[in-house]
Design a protein that fits this description.
The protein is an alpha/beta fold. It has 30 helices and 17 strands. The protein folds into three domains: 207 residues, Spore Coat Polysaccharide Biosynthesis Protein SpsA, Chain A (Alpha-Beta Complex); 131 residues; 270 residues, Rossmann fold (3-Layer(aba) Sandwich), CATH 3.40.50. β2, α2 and β3 form a beta-alpha-beta unit. α16 packs across α18.
Length: 735
Amino acid sequence: MPRLSIIITFFNETAFIKMAVSSVLSQSIDDLEIIIVNDNPQVYGPDYFNTLNLADSITVLHHPENKGLSAARNTGIAAAKAPLIGFLDADDYYTTGGLGLQLALAEQSGADITHAGCYLTRAGSPELEVLRRDKLLFHTAKTGAGLAHLEEAQFITSSWASLYRRDFLNASDLRFDEEQPKFEDRLFVLHTVTAARKIATLGAPARVWRQRGGSISVTPTDAYIHRLQVQLLEKCMAHMSQEVASGRLSFRFEKRELFNTVGRLIWDMDIIDPIVSGKDPAYAEFGQRIVALLNDARFGAAIFDDTVLSPISRVGMKTRKGFITRTMFFHLHKALREGDFAEVQALLTKAKAGPAKKAAKSPPTLDVDVILHLGMHKTGSTFIQHHLTHHRNALLEAGIFVPGPHYQNVQSETIREGASSGHAKLILGVRSAEKSTIWQELRRDVVQSGAKTVVISCENMLFPINADRDVLLGNLMDHLSMFRSARVMAFVRRPDSFLESFYKEIVANGQRMGSRSLQEFMVDHAATLTNLPALFAPIEARINGTVILRDFDLAARSGKVWETFCEACDLPEGLAAQAVPRYPSAGRNGTEAARLVNTLIAEKRQRQRMLRDLFQALPPEPDKMTILSPTERNMLIDRFAEASAAFSEARGYAPDYAKMRKSIPKKWAPLEGMNGATVTAIMQSRLRAELPHKLSAQHSIHDEASPPQNQSKQFVFRVKPRPWVVSALKWRPFR
């Protein structure tokens, strides 16, 4: 008889499933049962799971067809043999020893439900933060005789945060509602916590919730999603009202659920705009159901001081829906209850806009045109930026100003020689609207130059994978409005090569997100990076024109990248191409070595210092194979052709997709592991990059003989705090 059954539900999490399974197996728990429920058998049959080389002790159950997450978990419950059951999504994982601690508490306490906190990772990064609700409500270990004695359990985030006694689930006939194929957790949590006789909380995180592209938490909503969300709110309110009416719970539990329901409608569901627009008839029904749901239910101002709600309430906080005060929350609740959704929309618009600001007086528009080269990664951007620097004086004589070295970001030291980020210092002004002095300096320099055209070339100014991309592009376009007109130019590379090269660049530059695999990177960003209309449409809307696209692969094969750039930007003829040091991407072996460094070295400067040494020491790579398999490369080409072919052809990029597919070599094998010479180079680079502990946090990756530029003299004052202050600073609620 196993001690614990962990049910892992699988749909398409191919990039993450191995990590999920290994995180369970690494817990050193004897007699552990792992059940994988495959809810996508049409796409991933038994043959796929055979390729995972799973341990014989792991059971894989295949649904005959896709039934949804609720049904998959119910299938796992029915098959489980252990007295305790836990759930794990296939794209998440347990922390080292976390599940073991949670299991020990469940066995020792005998609780029907044993909750443990959760860490959250943002898309693409391994860095962790404690889930806000767990940090505020479940930061200490507690045990209570049911919900009445552990009231915060009403707001356990999800079913996967807890271990459940199997006898408890069976005796109370507790299963997931299969009418809720998504958003099933909240209802299951309420049914279980209201039925439990004993609830225990570990007071520490045991699991990592990985936010990623394509997951339900980041997927745009539609009528189907909103129907499930409204249905969930109805069922949760009905259940809590029934518990209160029966006398099993006091009235305050129903009030809390009502408050939570209104909060979901305001902050989480994005349902108000489609109700007001009336474009989809389904939303008229949703509006009526919301009114019926809220009915005459009220709460007073005391709700804001409720001991359970007040820590997790978003009232009075800065959120993505703006700053909503207590008074505005009451107004929103009243308008929702009365079905005045136009008023709700107006109030939310006001909240998002914030207090009216006095419009700053804009300086006059310059009688100057700007050409913005958006250097998409690995499309010859460094090559072009070297040429712009070389021909800077000649271009100025022709009335074209190229910003000088001052506009490079000297703090962004490159890992590999030959790299250039172009005018990357301008990005600092884009990222912070309050600190845009660099753009003011650019305006001054342009005026002093007397030029009628400015050329800006910068890598990553398209911000293709930034979560706040819309804000950054808006800031960029605001800065460019100083010019009379703007033209935007970019080279485009075949999508399979571009995406792999982009990934390699992230890994090689020592970014923390460079610890993940290429397949994980694709989950988050393949849809965006193959969709040129989505990438460029916000820019075209602001410049009232179309971007200029050119074929990088064609230009590179003909050796005319610089000439093609000059033609696209109408630069003067006769600017000869120069010999520029190559800046190639790392091979598969080098990329995997850098990824290992990014994974193991958390401190940024130490990581970058080590990588700088490593790329000098790595032996040449005879392996020329891609990281992407032929199947993955074809998938990216197909996705690009579907999303971008018509758009890009109208703007100057029209490759032969059939020829592109045909050029993919059929002979390919995955990288089996780093060779011995690479492992040796990694270890030696780590030793050479070692710094004394006190220096490592301050040391720059610049050489000792070449101190960073533009650093003013600093005076350092050292303060020795008293021992009790040191102890207080070292204390952490989660260990």
